[in-house]
Fold this protein.
Amino acid sequence: MRRAAAIRPETLACDGTDQLSDIPVLRVEDLVTRFGPPGKGLIAVDHVSFSVRRGETLGLVGESGSGKSATAMSLLRLVGRPGHIEGGRVVLNGVDILPLSQDDIRKRRGTEYGMVFQNPMTALNPVFSIGWQMGEALKAHGRSHGREKIIENALRDVGMPDPHRQARSFPHQMSGGMRQRVVIAMGLINEPQLLIADEPTTALDVTIQAQVLELMKNLTRDKGAALLLITHNMGVIARMCDRVAVMYAGEIVEEAPVDEIFENARHPYTRGLLRSVPDGARPREKMPTLPGEPPDMSQPQTGCRFRPRCAFADERCATHPDLLEIGNGHKSRCWPAQAGEAFDTAGNRSETANAV
Amino acid sequence: MPSENRPLLEVEGVRKEFQVESRGEKARLRAVDGVSLHLAHGETLGIVGESGCGKSTLARMVVGLERPTDGRILTEGGDIWAPGKAGRTRRASFQMVFQNPSGSMNPRRSVGASVAEPLRARDGSKTRQAVAAMLERVGLNPDFAARRPHQLSGGQQQRASIARALISNPSLVVHDESIASLDISLQAQILNLLLDLQQEMGTSYLFISHDLAAVQMISHRIVVMYLGEVVEATTVEEFSRQPLHPYSVSLRSATLVADPKRERNRPHVLLKGDVPSPLDPPSGCRFHTRCPLAVDICAREKPQLRKIGNAHMVACHFPERTPTITEAVPGPRGTGANATETA
């Protein structure tokens, strides 16, 4: 197996309490999550592996159904029935959390990792004040001293005006942007080493999105927390991330540092995705698009899953490719890319079809 | 009869008030407050703004789903609320595509029946061939007519909604966030489809979205709304060169570019606070509470929408100062200076 490296230096150092900054806070290995009975149903997360280091922001990007949210839920051990984690390892600060009991997990949620969900209205309980709800998060971790002060500071940290008064207000009395700040403050109140944010700004207006992203960037920078940012928005990725992993049909198809992804994408899906972002600078010009739609995941997949939509597919692609290193920190799950072939944008195998 | 050379759509000083209850007291919410705009045959007008700016209410008034509290909506010079058949016919010449494709089709009827509905409402004639042809035109297999909406993917459902809107050959289709619920690769497909269909059929679009990049891609002209008012209106080319309202500039600055190097290097205008409540809009210029350039007069006096340069309307006391708060993206340095000259 080429996938498994022989030596993992970070596992050797993991017994010490002092962790070096290049030791991943989170390391995910061959994570498999299935919805439905074993052997049936659909595999939403298919052998996904990645890691996030201290102070680093990893973007997990993909379209709906690509498995990015299912990955986040699996990391949190929050996959609900009929979904279940079928295999792999999720190593958080050196401990595989998949075999742990729910009690153990609950202790780690909040302090070791925090979560920011997409919809701030459903992430908050409508019948309790936000101060009360934030207090619950503290109580769960036995932090009862000076709770009020901690809550006010946490709200101040996320740029909430008048935190003393706001702690007494209820979710419905706040705007969407304010609510999302509360959710972020709650995700961070126990100072987790890893923050998992699933589409944290999708429900927000762009000027508010700019504020919230700025806030998350500062918080990861100042507190050295790792951030796993899940989004479908390429602009958010460009603004926020150090590294990017692209998901398609349950798998990571490409992973690279952020500049590399945008300048030298080496998977036809990533390239198509990037081309599909509308550019205001070229009004009323048709955009190059990705023809077709993602595969139906309830059907068994053979070969490269992107093959039916790919302009570069050939007979090799009938065999399922692995995610392999093709350059410095750059991995691609594509036979032509692994063979070092150029993705020629000219000619009749053009990838820049204006398909409608 | 209305003359041919009148604009397809004229919106004249339209206002819409809703009676709402706020903390036990009745209040009047002005969702749209004195909006005027026009749209020519075969043209696309993009309306951009954030939630609560009144863009959806405006869309609903244009297609006749809401009646304006004040002001008039004309098509080729005729009021769409004229009594009797005249008004009804005018309202029927507009169609709408909604945001959520699965929610805008009857789940218990076949896609074909839903698509045929506008034709059936007009006359009872044979619709089967028309539906098949229209489905093909929007890139769907005509066999889909027999399916139920849930058997189609989100992108296919939105294509079917577009087919339904276009089947009665309307002069104007209003898109209210019609691509917002789609994935990016599908958004690009639909935007291309709309451009193609417009070229083939000459339909006008009123394209309403919070996504500035998408609006800039599809529109000829662009209108920026804030708290129920138009703050800027101009051509897309002029807008991408230099927006002149501080809000438009912040909107453009907040619209992230899918290019990490450009994203790191361009300065960002970070607005303070949230959009104020439309129940209690700020005095003077409604944007003054968040505007980085606001001075005393902005809180006192409401700036009128006035013409600056060629075909550029802006409602700001100091549009010549606007370029100072921004980056000149993506053009070369000096575009800011040009904009000052037009003032």
Summary: Chain B touches chain A through 54 residues (CB under 8 Å). The two ends of chain B are 41 Å apart (CA to CA). The mean pLDDT of chain B is 88.
